[in-house]
């Protein structure tokens, strides 16, 4: 069962990562920013698993699982923040949350 | 013996520390008695040392003692070293003896002052410092004592610190002395470099072939001596120092500290003898000072300032003697001067005390009628000062004048100056006496001393009943001339002023000279003819001075000659203060202001302001990068990632 | 033949992955974005399977697409229309920079892969049938990577606690024992 080589997977991963980065950098809705972050993380995960396959080494998959756990945590906290912001009746717009400006 | 010397040294220090540490735990009286007792203990210890030393052969009378080596640099050692030899014992006796009488006198004089404890702590500290100075076994310890007496002088001149004049005088004294300290320290550095030791007497053996070095060292030492002893040209601080309490003037500014310069010259005579030009300069400065001070004393109206100028003049004689190499005579005069000048100051203190702090002699006329004992004491002091036989000054001063005749034409110039000084001494001393004591009672004195009380009954009734007397300087319910603690020292000093000179009469017996000879062999030994000649001249001129004073101020048969120019000149003390003001103070102030305005403001201050502004602007512009917008930060991270990736790839 | 089938599966999965990724980023409505992300995760799971990572693929579908995304959808629905925000915006230089940076990263990775493609990247290791199975993963997780396992669990715990505190905090100042007062616990108005 010989499919595409690892470089193809890596290309997909890079493409996913760039797409997610574009979303993070361009979108103003915090929800979409979070979703874009997930895409970036998934791109990284794909790369990890591809390398895991390349070396026949399970550690890459372990790492991917850890990334998934971190992603879940991040989503939980991020969503908590978004809900809190919404509760305060503020605009859900990352460009307006600039209270930490120096 | 060494133990006694150390006890003599530390007893006053212990008293000073005790008074300071106990604070209000010791009563004012207690502090006074503690200080007095400690100084008496010092005197007793000094007497023991003297007696022990007396029993030894003259050549063996030198005992150094080091308790602690506290500075070691290569082969250069400095320890806490004292030296017991005839000269230091002589000075110890004078300092602790006269010091004891004056501190005892202070018990009455300072009674009721708010800060008696501080006063007595300072006095005890001063006696310790002075003893340290004269007992020092090397130049570093001497310098320590030198600086400490300067400090005590500063503290005690400014003792009444709420008086601006006292503070100014204290500062002036300190600054003038600092000049001398600096030149002395420079001389010490030269000696350290050349001799690798500052111990007596090794440090002075500079050896031949170092003319410039010896001259510089001698000049530096002379600078210190001149500043401490208020000689030309650093004399202007002494009259102002009279702002301090009168016992302070008697102890520090008449009997002991100001004579330290003479002690220094005698102690370091070996250096001066290798630099004869500098030694002659010292003699010349002494002669100049004694004339100048005598002239200025003629026009002063403050009782203490007259005596202060007299002190300056008498120390001029001592410098003359030391400069001529008549060390024993200078030291002898130092001792008799300590007696009669302390007597004069303390008698003046009795008058001032009775008049509630008034020092203007024009208001005091006729007070002798109410204070006969004080009048007698003052008369004895004045006679001793002028040097009439058989009073103390006669024996000591005339030997110095005689020594001048041994020195060629330069000696005769000095001889003439010294004799002129004798005449001036007679005039100013008795001008003071005749203005203050005899004559009609001035209204001011009447107001102060005869207010509603039995003026006639005052005589003889000294204030033993201290307890009933209200405290405080300005409360003057006097019951006589002063409490016993004040009158007794005055009487003792009066007796000493009469008989103190008898211990040496150069042509017949000279124990002082013999005693000091192992330490300082005199350069000049006047013959009996010269002694007699000098005594005759000095006696006649002194008498003439007294006669002039009698005609002018006693009988008022002669009017005071009016020379407006001379008068102004003398009242301004030969314009020394003004000259220093123009020569040093104003240029310094102008320089400082100029630097402040043209350098510090635009360059230093401006530079710092500009640097600060640059940093603030940089901060402001950088802080604009911190937008608070998450997307901007994310963009920065992404851009950095892109760049770092390029770098990684390129580097591999 | 099997190769062709694998290739076909790969192409479908990869393209749906990329398409759904672009959709997530570009939908105006976060609800649709979230739905697109589920598709993205599912197609990624297929790719994981192709890479013999069965356990991760299962976890991806169960935990990620199942649990996390349901929560996401729930929050989006809870917020309703307020979840909408302008699509992009901000200064032009920022948009330009964003595209430039993302493009640069993509290009760089592709170039690096291309440079190495003919070399080691093509030689996949021989693997046995157990590779990627829950048995193998569990064994490695609890032996070689025990520390990572424990730390991950702690991270999850912290996140849970943080979410609870955030939720309680945002309800106002009624939390017992919480420092309260004017200006505490509120988001200041944008200035």
What's the short version?
By secondary structure, chain A is an all-alpha fold.
Write up this protein.
- The complex is a heterotrimer of chains A (102), B (652) and C (191).
- With 102 residues, chain A is mainly α.
- Chain A contains 3 helices and no strands.
- Chain B has 652 residues and is mainly alpha-helical.
- A two-stranded antiparallel sheet of chain B has the order 1-2.
- In chain B, helix 3 runs parallel beside helix 14, helix 12 packs parallel to helix 17 and helix 15 runs parallel beside helix 19 (484-499).
- The longest helix of chain B has 48 residues, at 576-623.
- By secondary structure, chain C is an all-alpha fold.
- Classes of the chains: A mainly alpha (102), B mainly alpha (652), C mainly alpha (191).
- At the A-C interface, helix 1, helix 2 and helix 3 of A face helix 1, helix 2, helix 3, helix 4 and helix 5 of C.
Q: CATH topology of the domain at 1-82 in chain C, anyone?
A: Four Helix Bundle (Hemerythrin (Met), subunit A)
Name the helix and strand elements of chain B from N-terminus to C-terminus, one letter apiece: HHEEHHHHHHHHHHHHHHHHHHHHHH
The CATH homologous superfamily name of the domain at 1-82 in chain C equals: NADH-ubiquinone/plastoquinone oxidoreductase chain 6, subunit NuoJ
Main sheet characteristics of chain C:
none
Question: How many strands appear in the DSSP assignment of chain C?
Answer: 0
Which chain pair shows the most residues in contact? A-C, 83 and 100 residues
Distance between the termini of chain B: 89 Å
Q: Give the mean pLDDT of chain B.
A: 83
Structural class of chain C: mainly alpha
Helix % of chain B is 55-70%
Terminal Cα span of chain C: 65 Å
Give the helix proportion of chain C (percent range): 55-70%
Explain the layout of strands and helices.
The complex is a heterotrimer of chains A (102), B (652) and C (191).
Chain A: H1 6-26, H2 30-55, H3 59-87
Helix pairs in contact in A: 1-2, 2-3
Chain B: H1 2-22, H2 28-54, E1 63-73, E2 76-84, H3 86-109, H4 116-135, H5 139-157, H6 164-195, H7 211-228, H8 237-240, H9 246-255, H10 260-267, H11 269-274, H12 276-297, H13 303-324, H14 327-354, H15 372-386, H16 392-404, H17 408-436, H18 443-449, H19 484-499, H20 511-516, H21 528-554, H22 564-571, H23 576-623, H24 630-651
Helix pairs in contact in B: 1-2, 1-4, 2-3, 2-4, 3-4, 3-9, 3-14, 3-19, 4-5, 5-6, 5-9, 6-7, 7-10, 7-12, 9-13, 9-14, 10-13, 12-13, 12-17, 13-14, 13-16, 13-17, 14-15, 14-16, 14-19, 15-17, 15-19, 16-17, 16-21, 17-21
Chain C: H1 2-26, H2 30-50, H3 54-79, H4 92-117, H5 134-142, H6 146-170
């Amino acid at each position: 069962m010989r499919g595409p080589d690892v470089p193809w997977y890596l290309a997909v991963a890079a493409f996913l990562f760039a797409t997610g980065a574009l979303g993070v950098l361009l979108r103003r809705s915090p929800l979409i920013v979070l979703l874009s972050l997930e895409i970036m993380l998934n791109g990284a995960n794909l790369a990890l698993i591809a390398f895991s396959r390349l070396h026949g080494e399970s550690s890459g998959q372990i790492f991917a699982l850890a990334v998934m756990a971190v992603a879940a945590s991040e989503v939980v906290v991020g969503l908590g923040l978004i809900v809190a912001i919404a509760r305060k009746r503020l605009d859900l717009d990352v460009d307006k949350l600039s209270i930490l400006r120096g | 013996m060494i133990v006694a010397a150390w006890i003599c040294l530390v007893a006053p220090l212990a008293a000073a520390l005790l008074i300071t540490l106990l604070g209000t735990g010791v009563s004012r009286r207690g502090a006074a008695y503690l200080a007095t007792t400690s100084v008496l203990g010092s005197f007793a210890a000094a007497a023991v040392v003297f007696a022990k030393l007396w029993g030894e052969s003259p050549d063996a009378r030198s005992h150094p003692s080091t308790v602690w080596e506290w500075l070691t640099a290569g082969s250069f050692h400095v320890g806490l070293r004292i030296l017991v030899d005839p000269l230091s014992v002589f000075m110890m006796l004078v300092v602790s003896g006269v010091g004891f009488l004056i501190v005892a006198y202070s018990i009455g004089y300072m009674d009721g002052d708010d800060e008696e404890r501080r006063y007595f702590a300072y006095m005890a500290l001063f006696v310790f410092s002075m003893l340290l100075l004269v007992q020092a076994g090397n130049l570093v310890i001497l310098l320590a004592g030198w600086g400490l007496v300067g400090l005590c002088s500063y503290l005690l001149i400014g003792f009444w610190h709420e008086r601006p004049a006292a503070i100014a005088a204290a500062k002036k004294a300190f600054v003038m002395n600092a000049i001398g300290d600096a030149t002395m320290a420079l001389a010490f550095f030269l000696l350290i470099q050349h001799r690798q030791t500052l111990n007596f007497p090794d440090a002075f053996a500079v050896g031949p072939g170092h003319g410039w070095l010896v001259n510089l060292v001698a000049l530096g030492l002379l600078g210190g001596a001149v500043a401490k002893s208020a000689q030309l040209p650093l004399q202007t601080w002494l009259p102002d120092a009279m702002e301090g309490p009168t016992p302070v003037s008697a102890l520090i500014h008449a009997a002991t500290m100001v004579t330290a310069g003479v002690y220094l010259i005698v102690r370091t005579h070996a250096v001066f003898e290798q630099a004869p030009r500098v030694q002659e300069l010292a003699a010349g400065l002494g002669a100049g000072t004694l004339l100048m001070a005598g002239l200025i004393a003629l026009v002063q109206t403050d009782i203490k300032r007259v005596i202060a100028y007299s002190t300056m003049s008498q120390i001029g004689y001592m410098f003359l003697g030391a400069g001529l190499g008549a060390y024993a005579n200078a030291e002898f005069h130092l001792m008799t001067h300590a007696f009669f000048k302390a007597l004069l100051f303390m008698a003046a203190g009795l008058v001032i005390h009775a008049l509630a702090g008034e020092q203007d002699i024009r208001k005091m006329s006729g007070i002798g009628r109410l204070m006969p004992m004080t009048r007698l004491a003052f008369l004895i002091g004045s006679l001793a000062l002028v040097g009439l036989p058989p009073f103390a000054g006669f024996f000591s001063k005339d030997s110095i004048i005689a020594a001048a005749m041994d020195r060629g034409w330069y000696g005769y110039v000095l001889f003439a100056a010294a004799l002129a000084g004798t005449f001036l001494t007679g005039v100013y001393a008795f001008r003071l006496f005749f203005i203050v004591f005899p004559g009609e009672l001035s209204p001011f004195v009447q107001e102060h001393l005869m207010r509603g009380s039995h003026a006639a009954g005052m005589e003889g009734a000294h204030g033993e009943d201290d307890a009933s007397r209200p405290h405080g300087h300005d409360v003057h319910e006097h019951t006589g001339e002063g409490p016993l603690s004040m009158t007794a020292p005055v009487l003792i000093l009066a007796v000493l002023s009469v008989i103190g000179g008898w211990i040496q009469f150069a042509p017949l017996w000279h124990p002082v000279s013999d005693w000091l000879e192992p330490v300082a062999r005199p350069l000049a030994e006047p013959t009996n003819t010269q002694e007699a000649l000098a005594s005759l001249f000095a006696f006649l001129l002194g008498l003439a001075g007294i006669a002039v004073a009698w005609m002018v101020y006693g009988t008022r048969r002669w009017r005071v000659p009016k020379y407006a120019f001379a008068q102004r000149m003398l009242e301004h003390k030969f314009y020394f203060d003004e000259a220093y003001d123009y020569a040093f103070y104003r240029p310094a102030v102008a320089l400082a202001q100029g630097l402040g305005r043209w350098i510090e403001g635009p360059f230093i201050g401006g530079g710092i302001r500009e640097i600060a502004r640059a940093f603030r602007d940089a901060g402001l512009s950088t802080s604009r990068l911190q937008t608070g917008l998450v997307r901007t930060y994310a963009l920065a991270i992404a851009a950095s990632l892109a760049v770092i990736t390029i770098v990684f790839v390129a580097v591999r | 033949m099997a190769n062709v089938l694998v290739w076909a599966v790969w192409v479908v999965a990869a393209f749906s992955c990329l398409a759904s990724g672009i959709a997530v980023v570009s939908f105006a409505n976060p609800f649709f974005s979230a739905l697109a992300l589920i598709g993205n995760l599912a197609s990624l799971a297929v790719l994981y399977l192709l890479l013999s990572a069965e356990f991760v693929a299962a976890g991806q579908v169960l935990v990620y697409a199942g649990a996390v995304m349901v929560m996401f959808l729930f929050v989006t629905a809870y917020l309703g229309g307020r979840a909408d925000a302008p699509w992009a915006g901000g200064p032009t230089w920022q948009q330009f920079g964003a595209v430039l940076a993302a493009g640069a990263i993509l290009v760089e990775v592709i170039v690096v892969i291309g440079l190495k493609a003919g070399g080691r990247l093509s030689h996949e290791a021989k693997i046995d049938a157990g590779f990627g199975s829950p048995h193998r993963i569990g064994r490695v997780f609890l032996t070689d990577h025990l520390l990572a396992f424990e730390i991950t669990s702690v991270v999850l715990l912290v996140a849970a606690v943080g979410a609870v505190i955030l939720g309680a905090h945002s309800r106002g100042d009624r939390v017992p024992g919480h420092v309260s007062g004017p200006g505490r616990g509120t988001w200041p108005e944008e200035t």
